[in-house]
TrEMBL record, chain A:
<dbReference type="Pfam" id="PF00571">
    <property type="entry name" value="CBS"/>
</dbReference>
<dbReference type="GO" id="GO:0005254">
    <property type="term" value="F:chloride channel activity"/>
</dbReference>
<feature type="transmembrane region" description="Helical">
    <location>
        <begin position="21"/>
        <end position="46"/>
    </location>
</feature>
<dbReference type="InterPro" id="IPR014743">
    <property type="entry name" value="Cl-channel_core"/>
</dbReference>
<keyword id="KW-0406">Ion transport</keyword>
<feature type="transmembrane region" description="Helical">
    <location>
        <begin position="222"/>
        <end position="244"/>
    </location>
</feature>
<feature type="transmembrane region" description="Helical">
    <location>
        <begin position="304"/>
        <end position="324"/>
    </location>
</feature>
From TrEMBL, chain B:
<protein>
    <submittedName>
        <fullName>Universal stress protein</fullName>
    </submittedName>
</protein>
TrEMBL record, chain C:
<dbReference type="Pfam" id="PF12728">
    <property type="entry name" value="HTH_17"/>
</dbReference>
<dbReference type="InterPro" id="IPR010093">
    <property type="entry name" value="SinI_DNA-bd"/>
</dbReference>
<dbReference type="InterPro" id="IPR051541">
    <property type="entry name" value="PTS_SugarTrans_NitroReg"/>
</dbReference>
<dbReference type="InterPro" id="IPR002178">
    <property type="entry name" value="PTS_EIIA_type-2_dom"/>
</dbReference>
<keyword id="KW-0813">Transport</keyword>
<dbReference type="InterPro" id="IPR009061">
    <property type="entry name" value="DNA-bd_dom_put_sf"/>
</dbReference>
<dbReference type="InterPro" id="IPR041657">
    <property type="entry name" value="HTH_17"/>
</dbReference>
């Protein structure tokens, strides 16, 4: 019995606590299956409901459908599950970078349901961000259930994301890369294997249920040299469109917050506006996978001017849907927008140079998608592999690389933070592992503070104090009130030197006459960043921490450097 | 030591009673209340291995313009310098994170359920989850402000009950109020419990501060509840039951809190209480 | 070997809160038993080696010289000894040469070197403090000396030592030390005594070793009171 227990302990220690590769791989596979299942469920239900509503779309009253959908979605999110606002991806990144990947259980389904309501009724939004949110929440909660630590839990969050993306797009590599590039932000060996397994599991689940080879099938392309010039032109165009898209999204969202109507009414109005536009231009509605399919295969029937108009209407409709109370992501709208842009560009190019030797319209739709995706997300790797995988278009990989890199560079110059990170950066909570912000947020004042200080009384005679400094190596002595025990000020050895050298002063002065009362103090409510700011502004190396008028300890720059370095090693080590 | 108690203020007469309770508690054990006036109807608390979302009902958000004044007035009355908590981090724009770095937290009987249940109803599920995760004890205030004059520790012999006993001692040392221990015997005789204390490092303190140790036979639980003085603070350890266990066995916590009106101070399985600073003072 | 959190705090030089956070974040190889954590020395060493973290599992010496007990003047004088009625030539080199020969605690092989060093120091600046007292000492630590020492030498006849006040010197305190930190300490302890007028008078009586040590002890006691 005893031996069994020892073996158990050994295994437990080996597999669960530190050398946890096996556990993470197994758990990653499970997470991938669940996340993939959630994605497939959303896709299937969306497809069937969209099909159900399709015949009613041409009626005039159909404009109200997206309104009702957005309203239901808002009410569900705000009143039933009481979720926070937004599409969820920043929340996942926040949880990973600041909270050890802790996500609430309700997040596993809340966004699925609300985005389903929005998209199924016709709102222009993507099902990917909600699926990412629930996939990550599934990973996080499985990690919680197994009692894993932060690092392991974060890996499982990444697994959930990868599984969800892999499943909804049939794109395991894109899932892996999206998860590492956008959500986790660090390429560590220990993360990659479980995430890859989860991505494969997610993709397999979706393939088992929806048997299709890739999401958007097309005829093979023939690439010509002229296409290089064409793609450079397209990249400039997509960068422009993606900046317009990002800005419109934010403007409309900000406008909605200022509109003095109650949120539920806002959702209804926004939805109806979307519905009205949708009657005249049905391609802007829904997640838009179907029009993309047509464009990629080169069978898109609309005229040039209509498509051109469609680009801007799609931007507007998506902004209204998401900004005014609907729920969903921008992934699918980006794809629609990208393919529309690509087709518009192709048609314009054909108009100007009718005899140019370039590839087909479908290829440009594909390149346009890559351009917009990398422009909006500023994650070139994710978009290249995603586009290549969902179209099976590895023959165009060269052009994809070109468009992606130019487009993301350009939009990065104009709009330095990507759509997913912008909120977090503005709140100062975009913290990748190993960065300054992350280290400062991890180190709390409690860990740095030095409490072993000798306090002195305000009524102490200077001679007595001289004896104290003689026998101690401190440079700061906090002065405490005799009556209340409150902190009054600080005696710094450096500033009393001239008195200390003159014995005539020894019996003449009390400490409260020479203490420094206007030294800046910090409290435990401040974080390390604030404290460093104080030190910078006032040019000091030590700062006392005073809590409720009581002296708690000192923080010194030397100690901060010491711990900062240790923390940096801990965060960036290879393990 | 700087002990801090987190209080989530509700700007209603009922909330005032709860806050008075917090103030009294802090004054008695020399802690500092920190008040959070909610601005959104929900917030998150992150613990080591869980995140708890607390949904507040609308009464917490009512009359936001007078809330701060009311709090300051009550602080002044108690002679404590007012102190407020402002959330620094937000998971989403409407979802602030409340720090879990407190030493105590005050909660009304239910922090999140409907007002009808506030009086003497269920213990909110959120409160229970918080007790399970929190590293600090939670003060479940009586519906009406009551100045307690003694401390009663419910000691059942588990590790958690031991924690509660330590906490009871700590409060007895800080407040100077008499401490009584109440134990319901479950099959064992009294000596088993006494030995348990003897084997720990607490023996000396128990001898010094505990004025009486009352034992009841296993069916005498309700009698015990009646015999606990009405003006005493009950300190007890909660055992984190799962949902199924709760349905089958019923929750003792639930029974206690629906039977007595006293203030309850509950320690959860993750509570860490040290006596160090208390004995120094 | 099992290592507790408190021990690890010391060897990594961080606070308990930090260790607990690292455990929670999964950055340390820890094994958990119920609610207590423990570490295995072997795992920790492997982990530290892999990540290039300096890990000192044996308790490190406390920082600063504060913790060590400094050598007192009392013991230094005991090691060095007191020598009376030294008959020397009229100039500095001969004084030093004779005195060094007398000091028993210096190994004979190194006496020549010591004399050389002391003379160099005198050339730079005389160590004659005035009031008939000089404290010859070398500039650099001597590695052939085991313990720091102070040797008191009373000359038979006062000698012109180029002292600050041009008074002839009759009393010399040789300060010899194996490490620099003793030097300053002994020097300050000695000068504390020499500043005392009573002590200077007392020195003129050419006291014996035991008397001198006793006097120093009482002086130091009153000073620190």
């Amino acid at each position: 019995m005893n031996r069994l227990k020892r073996i158990y302990n050994l295994f437990y220690a080996k597999f669960f606590l530190f050398d946890d590769r096996l556990v993470l791989m197994t758990a990653g596979a499970v997470v991938g299956v669940f996340a993939g299942g959630a994605a497939v469920a959303l896709r299937l239900s969306l497809a069937s409901v969209l099909e159900f509503f399709a015949p009613y779309r041409q009626y005039a009253w159909a404009f109200i459908l997206p309104g009702i959908g957005a309203l239901c979605s808002f009410l569900f999110l705000d009143k039933v599950v009481r979720e926070g606002a937004g599409h969820g991806v920043p929340e996942v990144i926040y949880a990973v970078s600041r909270r050890g990947g802790l996500l609430r259980f309700r997040s596993t389904f809340s966004r699925l349901v609300s985005s389903f309501l929005t998209i199924a009724s016709g709102g222009s939004a993507g099902p990917e961000a909600p699926v990412v949110m629930s996939g990550s929440a599934i990973g996080s909660n499985i990690g919680k259930f197994l009692g894993l630590n932060d690092r392991q839990r974060m890996t499982l969050v990444g697994c959930g994301t990868a599984g969800a993306i892999a499943s909804i797009f049939h794109a395991p590599v894109a899932g892996l890369i999206f998860s590492v590039e956008i959500i986790l932000g660090e390429w560590k060996f220990i993360n990659i294997i479980p995430i890859a397994i989860a991505a494969v599991a997610g993709a397999q689940i979706s393939e088992a249920i929806i048997p299709e080879k890739e999401l958007f099938q097309h005829h093979p392309f023939d690439i010509f040299a002229g296409d290089i010039l064409g793609s450079i032109g397209l990249a400039l165009f997509t960068a422009l469109i993606s900046v317009i898209f990002t800005r419109t999204l934010r403007r409309v969202g900000a406008l909605a917050k200022r509109t003095p109507v109650s949120p539920w009414l806002r959702a209804l109005i926004g939805g109806c506006a979307v519905g009205t536009i949708g009657i005249f231009m049905p391609i802007v509605l829904g997640e838009g996978y179907h029009p993309i399919m047509e464009m990629v295969s080169g069978t898109f029937p609309m005229a040039f001017w209509l498509i051109f108009l469609g680009v801007f209407l799609k931007i507007f409709v998506t902004a209204i849907t998401l900004g005014w109370g609907g729920s969903g992501g921008i992934f699918a709208p980006c794809l629609v927008l990208g393919s529309l842009t690509g087709v518009v560009f192709y048609k314009a190019m054909m108009f100007v140079f009718p005899n140019a030797a370039v590839t087909s319209e479908g290829a440009y739709a594909l390149l346009g998608m890559a351009g917009i995706m990398s422009g909006v997300m500023q994650a070139p790797l994710s978009s290249i592999f995603l586009i290549a995988e969902i179209t099976g278009g590895y023959e165009a990989i060269l052009l994809l690389l070109l468009v992606s890199s130019i487009s993301s560079t350009l939009s990065h110059i104009i709009e330095p933070s990507s759509f997913y990170f912008k909120d977090l950066i503005e709140r100062g909570e975009f913290m990748r592992p190993g960065t300054d912000a992350r280290i400062l947020s991890d180190l709390s004042l409690n860990e740095i503070i030095d409490t072993s200080y000798i306090t002195v009384s305000e009524n102490m005679v200077f001679r007595e104090f001289i004896n104290i400094i003689r026998n101690s190596n401190r440079n700061h002595y906090p002065v405490i009130s005799d009556e209340t025990g409150d902190y009054l000020g600080m005696v710094r050895v450096s500033s009393i030197r001239k008195y200390a050298l003159d014995p005539a002063f020894y019996d003449m002065i009390f400490l409260n006459q020479i203490m420094d009362t206007d030294m800046v103090t910090a409290s435990f409510d401040d974080d390390l960043h604030d404290v460093l700011e104080f030190m910078e502004t006032f040019n000091i190396d030590h700062i006392p921490v005073v809590e409720h008028h009581r002296f708690s300890g000192m923080i010194s720059k030397a100690r901060i450097l010491d711990l900062y370095r240790r923390e940096l090693i801990m965060q960036t080590n290879i393990q | 030591m700087n002990y801090k108690l987190l209080h989530i203020f509700r700007n209603t007469p009922f909330g005032r009673e709860t806050f008075l309770q917090s103030l009294y508690f802090c004054k008695t054990i020399n802690a500092h209340p920190v008040v959070y006036i909610p601005k959104t109807d929900k917030f998150l608390m992150y613990f080591a291995n869980d995140v708890v979302q607390v949904n507040l009902d609308n009464s917490f958000l009512a009359f936001p313009d007078t809330a701060r004044e009311h709090v300051i007035a009550l602080f002044d009355e108690a002679g404590i310098p007012p102190r407020f908590y402002e959330p620094k981090n937000f998971t989403a724009s409407t979802l602030p994170d409340i720090s879990s770095q407190f030493d105590y937290m005050c909660s009304p009987r239910s922090i999140s359920d409907l007002s009808s249940k506030i009086g003497l109803g269920l213990l909110g599920p959120k409160v229970r989850r918080m007790i399970k995760q929190a590293t600090f004890p939670i003060l479940i205030a009586s519906p009406v402000f009551k100045a307690w004059q003694s401390i009663s520790v419910f000691f059942g012999g588990s590790a958690n009950a031991m924690n509660a006993l330590v906490l009871g001692l700590k409060i007895a040392i800080a407040s100077g109020f008499p401490l009584k221990i109440y134990t319901v015997l479950e099959n064992d005789n009294e000596d088993v419990y006494r030995d348990m204390v003897r084997n720990s490092e607490l023996e000396e303190l128990v001898d010094q501060y505990v004025i009486e140790w009352c034992f009841y036979e296993s069916s005498g639980f309700d009698r015990m509840l009646y015999e606990v003085p009405h003006d005493s603070l009950i300190v007890l350890g909660a055992y984190g039951h799962g949902v199924i266990k709760e349905i089958l066995l019923g929750s003792k916590m639930e029974h206690i809190q629906s039977t007595v009106t006293n203030n309850l101070l509950v320690t959860g399985p993750n509570c860490r209480i040290s006596l160090e600073s208390a004995t120094q003072a | 070997m099992e290592i507790l959190i408190s021990e690890l705090c010391k060897s990594l030089g961080v606070s308990r809160t930090t260790i607990e956070r690292w455990i929670r974040q999964g950055k340390l190889p820890v094994s958990q038993k119920g609610r207590t954590y423990s570490f295995h020395a072997r795992d920790l060493k492997n982990w530290a080696a892999k990540n290039h973290i300096s890990l000192n599992l044996t308790p490190r010496p406390a920082q600063g010289s504060e913790a060590e007990t400094p050598v007192s003047l009392h013991t230094a004088l005991k090691t060095g000894g007191v020598y009376h009625d030294i008959d020397t030539g009229p100039d500095v080199p001969s004084v030093i040469n004779t005195c060094v020969k007398k000091i028993k605690a210096v190994p004979d092989d190194f006496k020549a070197d010591l004399t050389q060093q002391l003379l160099e120091r005198e050339k730079a600046l005389s160590t004659g403090l005035g009031g008939g007292i000089a404290i010859p000492h070398p500039r650099i630590p001597l590695d052939y000396i085991e313990h720091p020492m102070v040797a008191a030498c009373f000359l038979k006849t006062p000698v012109d030592y180029h002292a600050l006040d041009n008074q002839p010197v009759s009393t010399l305190f040789f300060i010899l030390f194996p490490e620099l930190k003793f030097h300053l300490h002994l020097l300050s302890a000695l000068s504390l005594c020499l500043r005392n007028r009573q002590f200077s008078e007392f020195l003129k009586t050419r006291p014996k070793q035991s008397e001198l040590i006793e006097k120093i002890d009482t002086l130091h006691l009153t000073q620190t009171m």
